[in-house]
Write a structure and sequence with these properties.
Pfam families: Peptidase_S9. The protein is of the alpha+beta class. Helix content is 15%, strand content 35%. The longest helix has 20 residues, at 615-634. The two termini are 31 Å apart.
């Protein structure tokens, strides 16, 4: 590992103030976002979000001839706000002329489109997890109906190409992943009920499909495939020979299980532990961790030591491919190759095509790095474990400052930015991110903490936050910060902390409990747990039952752990950034907190919801946060 004190320096510039190649406009305006890659024949398609086009999301294709094409209409931004977080807003199948046929939702209007025609549009209905029927007669979807009073109602529907809509199933609080079998005879899905979340307890079901003379569908007898153990079982997906795969965590880690229909029964088969967790928390629809090949073979996306890896199961033996880092499992092309969104640590995301080993090539880059940028300018995450409270071990990703122009002085240590991810059931992602490189290229060290409750480390680690949100997450970010200070990696006088959404609560709790951090930034963060549970949307309405306790029975705990309650204990300066249309964490949470703090600044972004999308917002947020830290450093 390179000694930063021995790099060439172009003048004595204090770390934290280095000029950087990562400009705010590069972060916000030029980087494409890739999601939900699909294949059809030899077509590669993905959802591409373009900041310079007001954050519009487009279904983009790489054609068999090697060209690019935008396939969704120019007036549409493909997306959905079901559960507020969305996902699964489109699907593709290969038509009779070997060209792709699309079905998708328009984020702007909620309309459901087949190709160039909008067949359904309503002020009260939203559609997600859209999946073509095997015969192409229509599509399955989760429909969320919003009402004037009460929670939105979720149902499973089938919609024909002409817009005839049939409700297939209702009654559960939540549905996800309606997936038809390759022969069109079966439909699988999973569901869950309040107060559970999809990573705590779900049910997997399958039913036969019956066609009506009018072109609609109905479900036959429904079979529960969940099994005797209480667990999270998610992501059903069929092999071509009729085996149904899913991933479940009854063993302690999300791992594949499969079901084969024989003699009128669904026979369950477990598969050997791969050494990695195969499954992602179901925050958004449309995630894919499994690609069944046949009843006994599959590809999978695993998480090991915080990093994504591809794994292949053949003849009961797992093989790992650690030199690619997809965001979802690779998808097959008809010529035997695969396509995937590659998210390595050293370069920005790109779309790749090729073999799991051997020849591969990039077909689309999310952004071209400026000329002159070298590998020395990019900080690579180093997995880190550290001791925390109760004798437990927690995890983080450490990034050192990186520049081939500037270096630390002989006796200098870099300032630190600790990151507390949202969720809190989420994870620090090791893929290349400008939100990290923005800081490291300016001479900051970054510590992205996978505190207890994070995913990728098994069910027990995830459940360690149960009843203890606002306690052990704070323990862990403080322990992580102290660990890198004790190791002599960072300047103990210039440690800061930032967090978004749930991470905002962690930031404020850490500032109140310790003087490790001299300043903090809260992006659309939680400050009032009672307000959150009373105001938030349906998907998270009972989330805090597990993280804090049932409400209002545990109201005293909600009060105790709310930053608003202990605001007087926070003496450090805090920057708040929030959108005025946030439906997940209300703007009032930031406003009320700022009014109680000794040193606080709030900036509100018009038209922004939970998470910033507009180019101007993202640029301003980075500039504002950097200036905030530099001003704090200058005052020392």
């Amino acid at each position: 590992m390179m000694d930063l004190h021995q790099q060439k320096s172009e003048g004595a510039v204090k770390a934290g103030f280095w000029p950087s190649w990562v400009s705010p406009s590069l972060v916000a305006g030029k980087t494409l976002s890739f999601n939900e890659l699909r294949t059809a024949g030899n077509w590669v398609l993905w959802l591409e979000t373009r900041p310079e086009d007001s954050g519009r999301s487009v279904i983009t294709a790489f054609t068999p001839g090697g060209g690019y094409a935008d396939l969704s209409p120019v007036q549409v931004s493909v997306g959905t706000s079901v559960h507020e977080y969305g996902g699964g807003a489109w699907d593709v199948r290969l038509g009779a002329d070997n060209s792709p046929e699309l079905v998708f939702s328009d984020r702007k209007t909620g309309g459901l489109w087949f190709g160039e025609q909008c067949v359904l549009q309503s002020n009260v209905h939203r559609y997600a997890d859209i999946t073509w029927a095997t015969d192409g007669s229509g599509a399955f979807a989760v429909r969320e109906q919003h009402q004037d009073a009460g929670e939105p109602v979720s149902v499973l529907v089938f919609v024909t190409r002409s817009g005839q809509e049939t409700v297939l199933l209702e009654g559960a609080d939540f549905y996800a992943a309606p997936r038809p079998s390759a022969d069109g005879g079966w439909l699988a899905w999973f569901s869950w009920q309040h107060p559970h979340m999809p990573w705590t307890q779900t049910q997997l079901h399958v039913a036969s499909l019956h066609h009506s003379k009018e072109g609609g569908l109905s479900l036959g007898r429904i079979t529960d495939l969940t099994g005797p153990e209480t667990c999270s079982i998610i992501e059903p997906r069929w092999s071509k020979d009729g085996a149904l795969f899913a991933t479940e965590d009854s063993s302690g880690f999300w791992a594949p299980v499969s079901f084969i229909h024989e003699a009128g029964e669904w026979n369950r088969q477990t598969h050997p532990f791969s050494g990695a967790e195969i499954g992602l928390p179901h925050w958004v629809f449309g995630q894919r961790s499994l690609l069944p090949v046949d009843a006994n073979n599959l590809l999978a996306l695993g998480v090991s030591d915080g990093f994504n890896i591809v794994q292949e199961l053949k003849e009961g033996v797992w093989k790992s491919y650690t030199d690619i880092s997809p965001s979802n499992v690779p998808e097959p092309l008809s010529d035997g190759r695969f396509a995937w969104i590659d998210t390595p640590s050293d370069v920005p995301p790109r779309i790749m095509v090729g073999g799991l080993s051997g020849l591969r090539h990039v077909i689309r880059n999310s952004v071209e790095l400026p000329k002159g940028v070298t590998e020395q300018d990019v900080s690579i995450p180093q997995p880190m474990t550290f001791k925390t409270t109760g004798g437990a071990i927690a995890h983080a990703l450490y990034y050192a400052p990186a520049s081939h122009h500037y270096a630390l002085e002989a006796d200098e240590l870099p300032p630190l930015v600790v990151m507390a991810h949202g969720g809190p059931t989420g994870r620090a992602n090791p893929g290349f991110a400008f939100k990290v490189q923005f800081w490291t290229s300016r001479g900051f060290a970054v510590l992205d903490v996978n505190y207890r409750g994070s995913t990728g480390y098994g069910r027990d680690y995830r459940k360690a936050l149960d009843g203890k949100w606002g306690v052990v997450d704070i323990d862990d970010v403080l322990a992580a910060g102290k660990a890198v200070i004790d190791q002599g990696r960072v300047d103990p006088k210039r440690c800061t902390i930032r967090g978004s959404s749930a991470g905002g609560l962690t930031v404020l709790g850490a500032l109140a409990r310790s003087k490790v951090f001299i300043a903090g930034t809260v992006l659309y963060g939680v400050t009032d747990l009672r307000g959150l549970v009373e105001e938030t949307h349906k998907f998270e309405a009972r989330y805090l039952d597990g993280l804090i306790g049932p409400y209002p029975q545990a109201e005293d705990v909600y009060l105790q752990r709310s930053p608003l309650t202990f605001a007087e204990d926070i003496a450090q300066p805090v920057l708040f950034l929030h959108g005025d249309e946030d439906k997940v964490v209300a703007l009032s949470q930031a406003e009320d907190m700022v009014a109680c703090l000794k040193q606080a600044e709030l900036h509100v972004y018009a038209g922004e919801k939970h998470g910033f999308r507009q180019k101007e917002t993202v640029m301003d947020a980075f500039v504002r946060e950097l200036a905030f830290y530099q001003a704090v450093f200058a005052s020392l």
